[in-house]
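User: Could you walk me through two proteins back to back? I'd like the raw sequence and the structure tokens for each, with a short line separating them so I can tell where one ends and the next begins.

Assistant: Of course. Protein one, sequence then structure:
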Amino acid sequence: MNPLFDLSDRVAIVTGGNGGIGLGMAEGLAAAGARIAVVGRNAGKNQAAAERLGAMGTEVAAIEADVTQEADCRRMVEETADRFGRLDILINNAGTNERKAPELYTLAEWNGLITVNLTSAFLCSLAAYPRMQASGGGKIINIGSMMSLFGASFAAPYAAAKGGVVQMSKSLAGSWAKDNIQVNAVLPGWIDTDLTVEAKRQVTGLHERVLARTPAGRWGLPSDMAGIAVFLASRASDFVTGTAIPVDGGYASQA
């Protein structure tokens, strides 16, 4: 393996790593040799994902945690460091969405979506920072969205949160560059996951509009997220920080 992309000495946390984009990224890291902590609220899904990753030959921990809770974020980091002896990579992937017209959201729904999709990434990053600083560096990868760039009539809180993910990533990158911690955002396009299956049911014509705008001519797969995860987690990206990289089959390139 090219040493630039070799993660065999690295330990990663992937929040929401028990399915969809998170699991696709975790599989990429596992293939590159990383040891991985899969974090989510569903213990059964965590264990199933851990077994899937373990079958690839890597060491895996399944950690049940609610990343909207500061104490859980700290515990997640400490459990990972206790198990593997270090922490090098954090992928903040946990997220959710509710789709409706803006005027139909309650304040509680707005606050809940901002907390899950934005605040959780901040809390996890703060929890990881001391460990990364003490070990001489690290990689934080925050998962944004195409809605970090474009509005969506059916997802105002989600779009606001994902726009915030990009600006937060830039701010953390500037603050923590002195500690050799690179912070970047990834902006997935329309990826075929359980969440977007629901979106296809809820938003009339979505499938056809996505295909029409995507030069690659298809929806993405979770496995399409593996390569960017390895790049941003590896030595290959040591001089890349504060960026927001679309992985979308060309969707964002179209007017």
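----
Protein two, same layout:
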Amino acid sequence: MQSKHYTLEDIEAKCIWRFKDRKYMGAGEKTKEGPISRDVYKKLAAPAFAVTAPEFDNGPWGEARVKVPDYVNIIAECEPGQGVPLHMHAKTIETFMALTGRWKFQWGDQGEQEVILEPFDTFAVPAQVSRRFENVGTEKAYLLVLISGGTHDMNDLIYAPEVGQKIVSEFGAETLEHVKKVGFQFTAGIKGKHTHMT
């Protein structure tokens, strides 16, 4: 089989992501409802940079420069005490590798289980398991996040109901409705509630 040949310009444009050119992720850019505001999105996700993502995803990683099929590659950047609230992925597996610092991971409907990851420790969280993470170190730290398993859109993300309640208390019920229309759900851990997939 003959190999493919690419110029340096092709490789630079399509295959290389440079940390110095990073851009924080947002959510909802590809939806008709429009993006979620930065202040609201901070309540749902850690500051992070999309490195690679599928071409036609409706996920928060739409600005990923490098397009690859079947998985998403993100780098989260958190100050001490910063992280994400309890959430789960309906169909995808989220794999975390600590690049720097110390990270507390909690899982279970109330975050009742806990483990600490240090540099290069890795935690692959199965689908439908509620999880959260937090930088418990003393300096800004970086976490590699890989999402694999098929669906890579916001309908795959389900938060605990209290996350939705916090959005209502800080930003109002209309804001929560907008976030839901973009695709996020707030039923993680509720018995008898099934996720909807579109």
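The longest strand covers residues 71-78.

Let me know if you want the two compared in more detail.
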